[in-house]
Structure formats: structure tokens, C-alpha cells
Specification:
Elements: H1 7-10, E1 19-22, E2 29-30, H2 31-47, E3 55-59, H3 64-76, E4 78-81, H4 88-98, E5 102-106, H5 112-120, E6 124-129, E7 138-141, E8 162-168, E9 176-181, H6 182-196, E10 203-206, H7 213-225, E11 229-232, H8 241-248, E12 252-255, H9 257-267, H10 271-276, E13 281-284, H11 291-301, E14 305-311, E15 316-320, E16 335-336, E17 340-344, E18 357-362, H12 374-380, E19 381-382, E20 385-394, E21 400-405, E22 410-412, E23 415-417, H13 419-426, E24 432-442, E25 446-455, H14 463-471, E26 482-485, H15 502-505
Helix pairs in contact: 2-3, 4-5, 6-7, 9-11
Length: 509
């Protein structure tokens, strides 16, 4: 189990009769049945002419079918989970950029991904849930008009094959493609399993979205690889959280800070459920959690909160605070938890403890490079180290703390948004002459999307007009919530529009 290098090996550990995937009001799927489902799905995909390294886009609602489909698709092809909230234009970009061979969509569920796939000539396979079988069971229906043909590279994936492809928001408008291999996923699952000491006795309550690296790897793959069970909710809902907790009796859950804060607001009236379902630990990742919130969560649940630090290029986890009795340092993201972590200066020198610099990593869970992007690879790697773009410090005991971000990416509660992408959309508005999008501090989400706009001479448009225009093109979380129409936008010394510090300059901080 410890040195699995393919998902097929990684998923072979759970006892046949042990439970693997649960869901509200459903009977659970066993590990044996999950392995059968994975093998069947790989064979079905092969019969559609889709095999190893072929990109398969998955657009499904959160829940057990999404979890099982990801595990199955990633075992034999390159899975590409996409956010079901995307608009048609976004799906068109991602499906085209991925060169998707197939789209898997939920039967009977309308999604703009279908029209985007049809426009691009991407075949669509319908996922039909099998509600009589264990949670997550499904069959795939062949794309309309498809002629059965064997895949050129069929069977289960090999260690260096791509298991998952995700886009990361770059500071440029074009998101970068991050291919992650079977070996990357296996290493990351192993790292998380060790950090959190997962065993067959554990049961996780998953509330994370399953198109995001955090939910896919920490929420599903790592615990299932330890032979334990994951109870898959239909997505985060603070009003339903404690009901699910009472139904599934979890030993742990992982979430982003905004979810933890929403859970805290409802914890007071659910003390009996909390007492009846003691957790071994809680986990937080994807953006930094205020130390005050950690203290409150630990008091309410009577369990340690383990803060971790992850990113897509590292197949999620890079650092984590350890479980007791080892020391947790609130405000730090903990110790290296899988890859090696160092702090580097601009010249590529590794710095001594307590010096501030860029956080760099290397290890088996780290991508070997962005797809078709020599410029990003040249900038992203130095002497074999991957540059995270995050600024931080490592103390003498090895605990890492983030001090800021070198990138201009807006981190809205764990959702990363490229400001340039929103700039380009706003510039399409007929009344706009100039725009710069930037991060605005937010008490719960960490950051929110802000925009400063200058209108063309003689043109008129309100803040609401521009927000509504953007909302037709991108998912709601990317629409600027603070939008200022100004006579001019403050510029830096060289006359450049500067995103960093703009919120302060405009009095929005």
C-alpha cells in the first residue's frame, strides 16, 4: 500500500466488504463494489475509443456519483473535473483548451457544458446513477451516434500516465494546464494519509466541491486509499451540516475557512449532535484561517484543528500542522508534509531559517511542468525546485508561515480568480475605456473581487450595469462585488496600473 504508483494499486487496500462511499439517505458502496465499478468504467471508456492519457471532462453535481466517477475515470484516462457553475463561454474555453476527447454529464441534468461540447464536436457520455445499488454506483451511456471502437491505449493507467488535468489561474489571462500523473496522485494521497493517520476505522464527511484539488485528493482519494469511508454530501450547506453529521457519524471533515465559520454560527444549537459524534480532528486548507477561529472550533468540537497548505501544482498538500501530541502552531501552515519545502531568494539561493522569501517545493507529488507552456515552466522551476509564488518564512523548527502572495491572484475563500480574465471581460463593455481588477480584503472570504473602471468620454453605465454584464460571461464568484467608477485609476511610479495595494489606495481595505 505504501508505494502504490497507480490508482488501481492505491484503491486495492480496502477490505472487500468495508464501506467506501456513503451519501445522505443511501446505502453505502463497499470497497469491493467500488473496485468493480472502476474496472467496468475503464472498460466502458475504452469501448468508446477513450484510453490512457485521453482527456475526459467531468461535469457533475457534487455527491457520491462525482466521487466514484472521478476515481474510475482517473484510473484509466486523464480526468478533467470542471466546475458545474461555469457559464457556456467558460466551458467552451476549458473543453477546447483541454482538447477533451469526451464529456461526462449527469443524465437528465441541464448544463451549458452540453452546448459547448456540441459546438466543439466533443462526444457526450450520459452518467446514469444506479440508485438501487450502493451510493455512487452508475453506468455510462455511449455518446449519441458513437460507433464502438477499441481505445488505442486501453486498460488501467501506468505510473507516468496523466491521471488528472486541472487549470490553475495564472496572473496572465490564460489559465495554465497542470497535468498530474498517477504517481503524483498516489504520492499526495500517501502524504495526506500519513499526516492524518487515516485508518479503516475513519469516516469523512465531505462538504468540499469535487472539481477542486482539495476535495478530490484530501476529501476523497486519501481516505479511500486508507480503506476508510467517505460520506459525500451534495455540497456545502451550513443548515444541513449537523443533520449529515448525525446520519454519518464522521471521525473528521476538511473544509475551507469560510465553511468552518458558517458551521460555527450554527454549532450552539447542535451541541447534542456534536457531543454524540466526537471527531478525531478537523482540517482546514485552501486559504488561511484566523487563529481566533481555530481556538473557537477546537473549543466547540473538542478536537484539534489541523491547518494545511496546498496548491494544484503539488496535487494539494505541501505542509500541514501535525496531529497531537506533536505541536500545532496557529498562524503557521505547519511542517513540510510530503514534499521538501525551502525558502528561496530571487537569485535562486536557499535561505536560512526565519528569512523571508519565496516558498519552493520539490517531491513526488509535484507536477513535472505545465502543459505546452515553456515560458511558465522556465519561470516556475529553479534548480529543480517549483516556485509557488507565495512569500513566506520557515522557522528553526521547520514550521512554515505565509507572509503574503507574490501573485496577484484573488483568493476568494479558496476559489482562485485571475484578475486579468475579469479585466478582459469588462473591457468588452461598450462604455468602458479602462479597468483594473484587484483583491479587496473580506472578513470571511479572505479576499473578494474588486474593480476600478474608467468610462469612455460621454458614455454612461452604472456599477450594476457592468456587474450584470460580467455575470452573463462568468460564474457568480468571479463577478466584482466592489466596483468603482472613477475619473482615473491611480498609477504606479512608472505609469503602470498596479493591482497590488489598489484596495488600500482606494479606501476599500
Amino acid at each position: 500500500m505504501s508505494d502504490a504508483v497507480t490508482l488501481k494499486e492505491l484503491l486495492s487496500t480496502g477490505a472487500d466488504a468495508a464501506l467506501a462511499i456513503g451519501a445522505p439517505s443511501r446505502q453505502a458502496l463497499t470497497h469491493g463494489a467500488l473496485r468493480d465499478l472502476v474496472a467496468r468504467t475503464v472498460a466502458t471508456l475504452n469501448s468508446f475509443g477513450v484510453g490512457r492519457n485521453d482527456r475526459v471532462a467531468i461535469v457533475l453535481p457534487n455527491g457520491p456519483e462525482m466521487a466514484a466517477c472521478f476515481l474510475a475515470v482517473a484510473s484509466g484516462t486523464a480526468s478533467a473535473p470542471l466546475n458545474p457553475a461555469y457559464r457556456g463561454e467558460e466551458f467552451e474555453f476549458y473543453l477546447g483548451d483541454l482538447d477533451a476527447k469526451l464529456l461526462i454529464a449527469m443524465s437528465g441534468v441541464d448544463t451549458p457544458a452540453r452546448a459547448a461540447a456540441q459546438k466543439l464536436g466533443v462526444p457526450i457520455a450520459e452518467l446514469v446513477p444506479d440508485l438501487a445499488a450502493g451510493a455512487g454506483s452508475f453506468t455510462l451511456q455511449a455518446p449519441a451516434g458513437a460507433v464502438a471502437s477499441a481505445a488505442a491505449n486501453g486498460g488501467f493507467a501506468q505510473p507516468d500516465d496523466v491521471a488528472m488535468v486541472l487549470h490553475t489561474s495564472g496572473t496572465t489571462s490564460r489559465p495554465k494546464i497542470v497535468p498530474l500523473s498517477q504517481k503524483n496522485l498516489c504520492a499526495s494521497a500517501r502524504n495526506i494519509r500519513r499526516t492524518l493517520a487515516f485508518s479503516a476505522q475513519d469516516r469523512g464527511l465531505n462538504i468540499m466541491p469535487l472539481f477542486h484539488i482539495h476535495g478530490l485528493i484530501a476529501g476523497v482519494l486519501a481516505p479511500v486509499s486508507a480503506g476508510s469511508e467517505v460520506f459525500c454530501s451534495p455540497g456545502f450547506d451550513a443548515l444541513k451540516f449537523f443533520g449529515w453529521m448525525d446520519e454519518c457519524h464522521p471521525t473528521w471533515y476538511t473544509a475551507v475557512p469560510t465553511m468552518h465559520q458558517a458551521i460555527l454560527t450554527r454549532a450552539g444549537r447542535n451541541k447534542e449532535i456534536i457531543a454524540k459524534n466526537p471527531l478525531r480532528f478537523l482540517r482546514s486548507s485552501s486559504s488561511s484561517i484566523p487563529p481566533q477561529v481555530i481556538t473557537e472550533l477546537e473549543a466547540v468540537f473538542g478536537a484539534p484543528l489541523i491547518e494545511a497548505y496546498g496548491m494544484t501544482e503539488a496535487t494539494h498538500q505541501m505542509a500541514s500542522n501535525p496531529l497531537p501530541p506533536a505541536k500545532r502552531k496557529p498562524g503557521s501552515v505547519g511542517l513540510a508534509a510530503g514534499p521538501e519545502i525551502e525558502i528561496m531568494d530571487e537569485a535562486g539561493n536557499i535561505l536560512a531559517p526565519d528569512a523571508v522569501g519565496e516558498i519552493v517545493i520539490r517531491g513526488q507529488n509535484v507536477t513535472t511542468g505545465y502543459q505546452n507552456n515553456p515560458k511558465a515552466n522556465a519561470e516556475g522551476f529553479t534548480n529543480g525546485w517549483f516556485r509557488t509564488g507565495d512569500q513566506g518564512v520557515k522557522d528553526a523548527e521547520g514550521y512554515v508561515s505565509l507572509t503574503g502572495r507574490l501573485k496577484e491572484i484573488i483568493n476568494r475563500g479558496g476559489e482562485k480568480i485571475s484578475p486579468r480574465e475579469i479585466d478582459e471581460i469588462i473591457m468588452d463593455h461598450p462604455a468602458v475605456s479602462q479597468v483594473v481588477c484587484f483583491a479587496v480584503p473580506h472578513p470571511k472570504l479572505g479576499e473578494e473581487v474588486g474593480a476600478a473602471v474608467v468610462l469612455k468620454e460621454g458614455a454612461t453605465a452604472t456599477e450594476k450595469d457592468i456587474q450584470a454584464f460580467v455575470a452573463t460571461r462568468v460564474a457568480d464568484f468571479k463577478v466584482p462585488k466592489k466596483l468603482l467608477i472613477l475619473p482615473e485609476i491611480p498609477k504606479g511610479a512608472t505609469g503602470k496600473l498596479q493591482r497590488i495595494g489598489l484596495a488600500q489606495k482606494l479606501g476599500l481595505a
